[in-house]
Amino acid sequence: MATLDDFPITRKWPPQDAGVIQLYSFPTPNGVKAAIALEELGLPYEPHLVKLGDEFVKSPEFVSLNPNGKIPAMIDPDGPGGQPIELWESHTILTYLAEKTGRLGGEGAARWEVQKWLAWQVAGLGPMFGQLGHFVKLADEQVPYAQERYIAEARRLLGVIDGQLQGRDWVAGDFSIADIAIAPWLNALEFYEVKDDVGWRDFPNAAAYVERFYDRPAARKGSRIPDPDG
């Protein structure tokens, strides 16, 4: 029977409790999704801070778990059939946790509503907002065409989510992993300092949604896990 000792990543980030979920992450918009979900679901887990430098995410130990060299990644020692399972990509982790617990993933037709919005975040919101933040705040040189392109696309995506939230608290009906995927990326506009650029005030449903999301104790706690100063 496989144990956590069989995973090379545990040599660089050794577990203190090998019986609980091991989370390898950093508190980026993608990184906090897993911690928020684990907090919402009340699953025991142990977070390991994986800093974003190549010496960490491209290390042989981390790449042995996630060959793509990106956070978050996770090992559940009690996976299907009681065997450990390794997981990476935030939407896969969210879907796995929802199915493991039977919560936050929707049932019947509602499951596919959740999956649609989860896919929308993965395919559009995250990549486009990431490029927006890069070219407006983080890039070493100003590229006006890129800035204009991603500001315009961010506004379009904000219009989509703002419309979906008209008259509802959560994007797919009940609170779900779709919200855990989407809200941290909307919140990233604050870090990227682009709220004025995208006209955040024009999207009141989205703004109220972010506040509502972070009013949840699990969201507030999970958004600071792992501790980046740890």
CATH C-level class of the largest domain is: Mainly Alpha
Number of strands: 4
User: Treating each run of at least 4 consecutive H or I residues as one helix, how many helices?
Assistant: 11
User: Which percent range describes the beta-strand content?
Assistant: 5-15%
Family: Belongs to the GST superfamily.
Domain GST C-terminal: 107-230
Keywords: Oxidoreductase
Pfam families: GST_C (PF00043), GST_N (PF02798)
Short description:
This is Disulfide-bond oxidoreductase YfcG. The protein is of the alpha+beta class and 230 residues long.
Topology record:
Layout lengths: L8 H4 L8 E5 L5 H11 L3 E5 L4 H4 L2 H6 L7 E4 L8 E4 L1 H12 L7 H30 L5 H21 L12 H16 L2 H4 L5 H11 L2 H6 L8
Parallel strand pairs: 1-2
Antiparallel strand pairs: 1-3, 3-4
Helix pairs in contact: 2-5, 2-8, 6-7, 6-8, 8-10
Main attributes?
230 residues, alpha+beta, Glutaredoxin, Glutathione S-transferase Yfyf (Class Pi), Chain A, domain 2, 2 domains, 11 helices, EC 1.8.4.-, oxidoreductase
